[in-house]
Structures are given as C-alpha cells and as structure tokens.
Design brief:
174 residues; 5 helices; elongated
Length: 174
C-alpha cells in the first residue's frame, strides 16, 4: 500500500525514511515529557519530592511506549542515513560515505553533551535548581524533553526544506 501511495519501489525514499524517524523521535520526546510530568505530579501528591530515593507509585509500563518509539525512530533514521550515505556517494567514495555517517553520530554526541552542560549551567545560575538535579523528584527532565521536542520540530522543518531540494543520484542499470 505504501509503495502505491509513494510510487517508490521501497515504499519510502531514503530521505523520507530519515524524516519519518525524526517525526517518531519528536513524538517520543513529547511522550517522555508527558510521562515525566505525570511522574513529578505523583511525587508531589505523595509528598515524595524531598526524598531523592523514594520510589514513585507509578508503573514502569508508562515508559514502554517512548522506548518503543525511540527504537523505531532509530531504525528509520540510522538505517536510512547509512543507506543514504552509501547509495548516494560515488562508488569510489563509498567508504567516505560510511565515515560521514559515523561522523554525524559522533557530532551528535558532542552536541547533546554540550546542550546538557549549557542547560545545567543556565538553570543553576542564580541559585536555581538544575533541570538535572541529583534528586529526580526536584529535577525538571520534563522541561528538557519539551525542549528536545521543540528542537526536533525546528530541525524537522529545516530538514524538509533541504530535502525537498535534493536530487537523487541516478541509478545505472547493468
């Protein structure tokens, strides 16, 4: 059905796969923010905010959908990117395409680490409580997840803008 709708033999183009993964990841971050908001509310209702070691009366099953979505997003994004870098590079430069794929992954790790450090510095300045407090019941991971969802949305808009202008390399038969 997807093949008929898109007119693509594989159902989705390489860039559509990556975009699909980005959308799923953004939805997962929204889900994570909602679950964390619920967890913090449960901590407040049960007077557990000041107890860093408290077990919040909330089932682990609340986490399953977001972890499943992150797994699905990874499949779409990582496989799509790897195929894109392999398929769209000239055959003489395919090893460079794979190196670019891994470089993107490494840069993402550095950027996420820098983002966390920056947010921690900003939220701690002026004597405030860090979003990443040692006491998770006082932390605000929900804000962080909403920020990630917002950044993902902005990134998705930019991604769509760029990919709509991309021209795929022609396949040679034979």
């Amino acid at each position: 059905a997807l093949r008929c709708a898109t007119g693509t033999p594989s159902g989705l183009t390489l860039l559509q796969r990556v975009g699909t993964g980005m959308v799923v990841s953004m939805v997962a971050m929204c889900g994570a923010a909602l679950v964390e908001t619920q967890r913090l509310e449960m901590a407040r209702k049960n007077n557990l905010v000041d107890n860093a070691r408290a077990i919040i009366p909330m089932s682990w099953a609340w986490l399953v959908p977001q972890y499943v979505m992150i797994g699905v997003a990874d499949v779409f994004v990582l496989v799509g990117m790897q195929e894109f870098f392999y398929d769209q590079m000239p055959s003489e430069l395919r090893s460079l395409g794979i190196a670019l794929f891994y470089s993107v992954m490494g840069i993402g790790g550095f950027v996420s680490g820098a983002l966390i450090s920056l947010i921690d510095h900003i939220t701690c300045s002026g004597g405030g409580e860090s979003w990443f407090s040692d006491n998770l019941n006082r932390a605000h991971l929900d804000y962080f997840y909403w920020l990630l969802a917002g950044l993902s949305a902005a990134e998705l808009v930019l991604y769509i803008y760029i990919t709509r202008r991309y021209v795929y390399k022609e396949k040679r038969v034979g």
